[in-house]
Amino acid sequence: MVEKKIPCAAFYTFSPGNWQRDKGEVQKLMSLFQGTISELGELDNKDDLTEGSIGWQEDFSNNFQESIKKLESENPQEPKTTIWIALSCGERVEIVAAVNQAVALGKKSILKVFLLC
After folding, report:
1. Second label for 39, Cα 20 to 30 Å away, from 31, 48, 85, 103?
2. Can you count the helices (H) and strands (E) in the chain?
3. Calpha distance 7→29 (Å, rounded)
4. Where are the chain's structural domains?
5. Does the predicted model carry a pTM greater than 0.85?
6. Residue 117: per-residue pLDDT
7. CA distance 110 to 103
8. Residue 50: how many CA atoms within 13 Å on its side-chain side?
9. 55-82: string of b/e by CB count within 10 Å (b at 16+)?
């Protein structure tokens, strides 16, 4: 995304309906998701990329929540691209609530992404 000069993007990662899946399937999905979060932290162009999250982290394991916090804490000051990860957001009402929550927490740059969509 940095190479393509995309300034910001949002990825919907796990909708509330996914929690209703078979426990084994949810565990496999969480394992894949945890691996993706780890890979984001190891990218070569990390100085150009900022990651943030919106949504309900408390739905996820403590290990996953710590991975997200670590990823967000390593963000550069002047990124070329910002990635927002929407957690447990599926329907419009959940997305609006998550964006409002993010703004309340001082993550105002999230508005750029959702106002452009």
Report:
1. 103
2. 4, 3
3. 28
4. 8-116
5. no
6. 44
7. 7
8. 15
9. bbbeebeeebeebbeebeeeeeeebbbb
